[in-house]
Hints:
The structure holds two protein chains of two kinds.
Chain A: E1 3-6, E2 9-11, E3 33-35, H1 37-52, E4 57-62, H2 68-77, E5 81-85, H3 95-109, E6 114-118, H4 129-137, E7 141-145, E8 147-151, E9 154-160, E10 165-171, E11 174-178, H5 190-196, E12 201-204, H6 206-209, H7 217-220, H8 246-256
Parallel strand pairs in A: 1-4, 1-6, 4-5, 5-12, 6-11, 7-11
Antiparallel strand pairs in A: 2-3, 8-9, 9-10
Helix pairs in contact in A: 2-5, 3-4
Chain B: H1 6-22, H2 27-33, H3 40-46, H4 65-78, H5 80-100, H6 103-115, E1 119-123, E2 139-143, E3 146-157, E4 164-175, E5 181-189, E6 195-197, E7 211-222, E8 226-227, H7 233-269, E9 271-272, E10 275-276, H8 281-312, H9 318-347, H10 357-365, H11 375-385
Parallel strand pairs in B: 1-4
Antiparallel strand pairs in B: 2-3, 3-7, 4-5, 5-8, 6-7, 9-10
Helix pairs in contact in B: 1-4, 4-5, 4-7, 5-6, 5-7, 7-8, 7-9, 8-9, 9-10, 9-11
Amino acid sequence: MNIVVCVKYVPDAQSDRTFNESDNTTDRVGVDGLLSELDEYAVEEALKLVEAGEGEVTVVTVGPDQAADALKKALQMGADKAVHVKDDAIHGSDAVATSLVLAEAIKKIGSPDLVITGMASTDGTMSVVPAMLAERLGLPQVTFASELSIDGSTVTIRRDGDAASETIVATLPALVSVTDQINEPRFPSFKGIMAAKKKPVEEWALADLGVDASQVGLEAAWSKVESFTKRPPREQGQIVTDDGDGGTKLAEFLYAQKFV
Amino acid sequence: MFELSKDHEDFRRVVRDFAQAEVEPHIAQWTREHHFPTDLVPKMGDLGLFGLVVPEEFGGAGADFTSLCVAIEELGRVDQSIGITLSAGVGLGINPILTYGSQAQKEQWLPDLVAGRALAGFGLTEPDAGSDAAATRTKARLDGDQWVVDGAKAFITNSGTDITSVVTVTARTGTLDDGRPEISAIMIPSGTTGFTVEPAYDKLGWHVSDTHGLTFAGCRVPADNLLGERGQGFKQFLKTLDDGRIAISALALGCIERMLAETTAYAKTRTAFGRPIGVNQGVAFPIADLAVMAEAARNLTYKAAWLKDEHEAGRRTSSEVKQAASIAKLYSTEAANTATRIATQVFGGNGFMEEYPVARFHRDAKILEIGEGTSEVQRMVIARHLGLPAA
């Protein structure tokens, strides 16, 4: 089974994330970045499927130079090869354009039996690329899988909702997005780190995919960030002096905040 | 020259993430309960930690010694007991077998040790013999095709875990012409009749590390269990210690770095008299000293590790490695003790509380100046290297 996993290089949530002052896009250069943690589950699931049978795992990302780090992490974990789509024209692309570039890249990679994505990126957290991508590729979209199994030519997933858990079956090839409940992503081993250095990473530009620059980027985006303001620093909390009625005041506060 | 390679740094990040995810959330409880986390060992094996310096034919990565130091340093930042579990598991458990074992011995023991399915110990220290290895009293005599071992060992790391597979011990196997004892190394598999693992020690620190006394009473193992050449046990052991000293230096480095990180963060956020305590030079200057100690310990440790790797490649002498190892171990471990003392002081009353990690590191630091040769022994080694007359 050949699997393509879409991964994203995102600013580290542990550090101070910000936007570029010039065009209000996410600052991906001035902050430490990494493979989106939610995508690690997708990589792990693909590796498990291939290890249980045969085939190979290709990881693909659309992003600037530094996004190669996200691919490297996936290769260190065990993916077989990687594709990095980078082009200055892509800067500022929205989810619609991103899904277009990813779809064309996946077509160029070949016809995978399965496309796996994370449930959302940890920066944009829009969760729409998997659906858009399935639509563009004409694949069944099976999203938010917290369990996945393959049986011959079908994929079965469990989707946990607030009210019910659904079991969903689709024919392969298909696109599946996975949640953080599906597995426990592995750490790259030392051997994995060394092996990753020898694995092929292809770099493609928009022209290689037949995508016109006018279809992507900030200008083509259906939506864009008009302005941003930094969250104000947290203010000092309210100090209640206990004059014998501390309990009452505390209860009033919690009630007013709708905590109780 | 003053930077580790990109591969080493990539690996450092993985070990750091691993330690944060697999050790940090549990360490307070493990420490409180003096619990050795057997389940963590195979996870460390999966990461490749035990097999770093082991050739690929035995399941290892065939990497350099510097990589192992990076792993010990990073584990040591999160917890010293876990760091020593790796350091001893490789340096004392795997290394003697890898270096002196026969092909059959390597094939029998190494794959499980590398995978973290098993741990091995090395028994040298005795109640009355430490660095003075010639005072070894444990005896082994050949009876037909078996060694019969009698004696006792003290302070043996990783010797009594649920997955300990074998302990190599040094024993007198005869007397040389000049009257000195002939010392050999013999492998005793766990569970051998007559081999008793005593209850775990009640230690000042390293509460999560497994340490036991061992006794041998008429303990019989096949003659083939001799590790290396008969009569070479002492020499083999000395070489094992040189590597171990660099590893302990890496462990001490992890301790210093953690103290630097903890005190820096604390001094920025803890307020007294209406301002962060880091404003006070009485607090800021000792933290500045910690940064100097970390830098010095890092340079000495990795210089020694580099020399060892160069020595393996035939470009440096063992004497250079030995001197650098002792210098690094002496400085880093004494600095680690200064660092934990400073950190506890910066934390004030909180530094005395188990709620903060500083207290645990404070307890753990002392043994660094003792194990794998005390600070005094390091000074002795260094002084002799300088050509000063020996007693």
